[in-house]
């Protein structure tokens, strides 16, 4: 049986991940990923990107995204958390609002909305729950309400 404490700790780690992205806080984001030998096994798939493997490659991708994104906000829905021993899986829908820099200095470019489904895999460490894998895929088709009734 999964403890409420584990579920809350995983939820906090997941929330911290998205808050770090929103705030452009690369240091906090880096701290949320596995380190050491375990860091070699981390993976990440951003929407439309190939699989990134290893802590260095994954963190470089986030540095690139942060450097080229003026504004980003995540509204998470359909969040589901499951914990099995020292591994936890969070699935959610990322309702993303983002804007790139404008051509005029100091101005925000047009805002764009995007719907993405994500899986975040965490491992328990002595320092708390750390990301092992993030996989995000764009939602390209609307869900048919009739499918839910089957």
TrEMBL record:
**Which SUPFAM superfamilies does the UniProt record give?**
NTF2-like
- Kindly give the Pfam families that the UniProt entry links to this protein: SnoaL_3 (PF13474)
InterPro entries in the record:
NTF2-like_dom_sf (IPR032710), SnoaL-like (IPR037401)
Q: Which organism is it from?
A: Streptomyces indicus
Per the database record, which ranges form the SnoaL-like domain?
Answer: 10-139
- Highest rank taxon of the organism: Bacteria
Protein name per its UniProtKB record: SnoaL-like domain-containing protein
């Amino acid at each position: 049986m999964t403890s409420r404490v584990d579920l809350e700790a995983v939820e906090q780690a997941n929330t911290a991940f998205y808050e770090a992205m929103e705030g452009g806080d690369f240091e906090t984001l880096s701290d949320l990923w596995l380190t050491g030998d375990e860091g070699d096994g981390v993976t990440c798939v951003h929407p439309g990107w190939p699989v990134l493997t290893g802590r260095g490659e994954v963190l470089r991708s986030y540095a690139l995204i942060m450097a080229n994104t003026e504004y980003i906000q995540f509204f998470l829905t359909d969040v589901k958390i499951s914990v099995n021993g020292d591994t936890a899986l969070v699935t959610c829908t990322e309702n993303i609002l983002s804007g790139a820099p404008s051509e005029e200095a100091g101005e925000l470019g047009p805002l764009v909305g995007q719907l993405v489904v994500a899986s975040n895999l965490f491992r328990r460490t002595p320092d708390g729950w750390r990301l092992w894998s993030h996989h995000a895929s764009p939602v390209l088709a609307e869900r048919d309400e009739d499918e839910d009734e089957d």
